[in-house]
Amino acid sequence: MRKVLLLLLATSTIISCNSSRKGRAGKPGSQGEIVVAQKSQQWNNKKPYGMVPIPGGAFVLGQSDIDFTGTNTKAPLTTVTVSAFYMDDTEVTNAEYRVFVNYVRDSIVRSLLAERVGNEGGEGEGIGRYSYLNKKSENEQTAYQQMLEEQGGREGYDESKKLDWSVPLEWNTSRYPDVAYAEVLESLYYPPEERFNNERIIDSRKLIYQYTWIDQLEAVKNKGRGKDFLKKEEIAIYPDTTVWLRDFNYSFNEPLFEQYFWHKAYSKYPVVGVTWDQARAFCAYSTKSKNDYNQSRKKKKDKIFPYRLPSEVEWEYAARGGLENAPYPWGGPYLIDDRGCYLANFKPKRGDYMENQNGYLYTAPVKSFNKNGFGLYDMAGNVSEWTVSAYNSSSYTISSTLNPYLGNRIEDPRKVIKGGSWKDIGYMLMVSERDWEHKDSARSFIGFRRVQTIPEGSKGRFPIVKKHAPVR
């Protein structure tokens, strides 16, 4: 008995010694202190493709350059501060937006094919290849997927209905694998009685993009959370090509109506005919696409800061390019350079849309004119651009001086557009000029570009830009 007690005492002593050496709590060696498992490192925010960094800074908001009294957009000048963000160096082009359209088209086709297959599995060379990923014999279901299937899935995204994107779609009718496949794809095209010259064209009305977002402002306001503040959007995302006919009466614009969005000749031109909601849907898709890629890598990466539309103040700050009291992105006050060439795509004279415009009668390819001090192209002219901001003639007087923003205000039908367009006169190109359009309106002269927030703690922060005296 004595030997047993001595053995227990010795063991206790060894454990006590080890504990004092490694710490009684937390990670071994922490000596009881709170120690983070990984060494704290600055987060490296990689610059997104096609974007340029806009450094945070302060500037004078409003028409500080020219005094137009008696206008409904005139407001007291205010010095405001804007955080750093990335911004597309050009407007979103037809080619970029077509990637979005094709993704929506393909995801709809794959979902229809997978539903048609049902529970038959994914064997063979026919339509069975397009079954949901978890139905295929080589893909065993995880416990989570089994639970979802037993419960009939979850409202919203269903993990058990994951599509297999590795199997290519076949669009050539002579190569359809079986009749079932042909029936599914044919359902996506216009019916024969609605076709022109019997041309098979996908029914753009069926290209619906679904996504969700949280109305955080309402949630905070009502001190709650949950499905009441979860907004589900279903957006028909195909651009309205009829704008080329509707915006201009008694004008021959049929070629643009028929070809502007899809023809390769217009790939580098800014996409138009998109509503405010469609622009936001494109931003949501951009965020999803990047996050999906990050999660598909062996070494998974963090979720990115969402792509979004810029606020009105962010847009104006970026358009100025760091210049003080400048009416245009290149400075000013003139619209031409020292060689007599116009510095943007706009209407220089009454009825004259082409004088010294390099032959651009309507929109111009992006990057056709010089960039501003931040590296942004076409912040004046070419197409006006949607912002996320609701239009209010008193915005400058009631908003904060720190990242001014009146909130998303989805219910407000009027949204601010900035920059002027190819059909506008020079006054509309001023960086301080404000205009608006109904959010459900599509126009042949309105496009958009995205921004992405740069967090304060990210690696490689940018210098503060401050090139003016404060306005009191």
What does it look like?
- With 472 residues, the chain is of the alpha+beta class.
- The protein has ten helices and twelve strands.
- α2 crosses α4.
- The protein is globular, with a radius of gyration of 28 Å.
- Keywords: Lipoprotein.
The coarse overall form would be: globular
**Overall SS class:** alpha+beta
Q: What portion of residues belong to β-strands?
A: 5-15%
Biggest sheet, in brief?
4 strands, antiparallel
CATH domain class name of the largest domain: Alpha Beta
Compute the number of strand runs. Answer: 12
Span between N and C termini? 88 Å
Q: Uncertain regions: pLDDT < 50 for 5+ in a row?
A: 4-9, 13-24, 468-472
Spatial extent as radius of gyration: 28 Å
